[in-house]
Amino acid sequence: MSSTLVASSELKNEKSIKTTSSGEQSVQGTPSSPSSSSASSTSAPTKKSVVDYIRLFSLIIGICLGVIIGALDMNIVSTALPSITDQFHSSQDDGWYGTAYLMTLSAVQLLWGHLYKAFPAKVVFLSALGIFEIGCIVSATASSSAAVIVGRAVSGLGSAGFFCGCLIIMSYVVALRFRPMVNALTGLLIGSTQAMAPVVAGALTSGPGWRWCFWISLPIGGAAAALVLLGCSIQEPTDRLNGKTLREHWVSFDWVGLGLWIPFIVCFILILQCGGSQYGWTSGSMVALYVLTPILLGAYVTWQWRAGENALTPARIMSQRSMMAGSLYMLFNAAVESQLPYFLPVFFQAAQGKNALQAGTDTLPYLMSLVAFFIIAGAGTTAVGYYVPFMIVGSAILSVGAGLLSTFTVSTLFGQWVGYQVIAGAGLALGFDAPQLTAQTVFNEAEHDMTIALTIITSLMNLGGALGVSIGTLVLNNRATTLLVGRVPGLTSSIIHNSGLTDILSLVPAKYGSIVSAAYAQAIQGVFYSTTAFAVLTFVIAWFMEWKSVKDDHAASSGDKEKGKEK
């Protein structure tokens, strides 16, 4: 962490030099006079005090606490679902507790990116945190199932803001060459918190009750807000709005693009969450979604090309080679990252008959591997400078690890399931943060673009998470239905789709328990086949990345700069 502090100091020195020049050119990297530069470089170290470092630590820890509660809230509800639906007698709503959160989280992510462009980062971050906490209070005090769903939607709205804000603020206070370590820290927090969320939820649900799954976020969020407020000031672009007034910025904002993006996300997530469970795949509602989703996406892409620089996701940014490849890499890598901690405990409970606590404990090899290799990836990228090798090697290892997980059976030995988890965790961690580094490196000299690029990456990370869990659940339920219906008396497709594993085992005679376990083991193999497919896609995509170094703080390609001059 001491290197991070040094990095912050160095970056602030660079910023102060830039602000001595006038106009937008100073933000884009035009150097100031030699005397100014010399004075800044010689005097800056003497200005740093213990208080400065404490305030920087305060800011970073506060942001990390925000990431923790966001990642926790993303996965904690799945374990609490039986208790919530039992209290409100609302089993028909169980899918919406997760869907409402994912919808708002993914739909408004891009809007938050533009808010960070228009307003001070601390103000936007704390506003997002406040909205998230309001949602948690609504869910915790809910007197009906509908109120829980509304609270979840509000929480998703807020978490979208501080997830992307974490990366944006870090890019302002930490020098580029040290960001791999900071990004590794945030990735580590997200991965480990999501992996531990079911254990935390189980302890809270069986203890004080399911409402504490939401109450727990309040003290953590309060501490995060206090630390961010007390933290160091954030040196942001001097001309945040590119010469526009605030009114001009919002008049020219891409409201049409946002109006197309939000319904596309809603339709896409409804297909993933409701198809085959709440609605049949050939029902009128699903057919309407099949038609609307590609139409909305096509309209959105077309409009983005026509909107030019005012677009929600400017084509100039998305068509950049590394940005396009990095975005797709993040989408599929996040799908893997969501599937592993979600379905590994299901395997241990379904195939090996362990309880929820034992199943959570048995995923510790995966968690420990994540921790170790996030650190290795961050330190290695900082030392070497290049992040693409970690993407290629990581996705190759991940493909092997996911393939090995797909061989799990009822009789899989201890050494096998430990080793396979370690391999998969190592591969995932090595390349997970690279897309974020791509956005920060390629657009390092154009901070307005970097804000939007980081928001796009974060949005696709959330979409990938929804994609992975939804496809995994679909494969699991469909394969279990095929293997069990007709073989086990009393089991129907509806029961399998709408009940938990514990409920299913309690509904069938004991003599059929081994059949149910074997069927679920085979079904989970199918889930890990999809995990392997996602991992292989990341390996292919990694080869299309440009090799850029984080050691070069002026990493924007000369070609991009020349294009900017011509414009």
UniProtKB/TrEMBL annotation:
This is Putative HC-toxin efflux carrier TOXA. GO terms for cellular component: plasma membrane. Residues 30-44 have a biased composition (Low complexity). Residues 18-29 have a biased composition (Polar residues). The keyword Membrane applies. Its main location: membrane. Residues 59-550 form the Major facilitator superfamily (MFS) profile domain. PROSITE patterns: MFS (PS50850). The keyword Repeat does not apply. One of its GO terms (molecular function) is transmembrane transporter activity. It comes from Talaromyces islandicus. Keywords: Membrane, Transmembrane, Transmembrane helix.
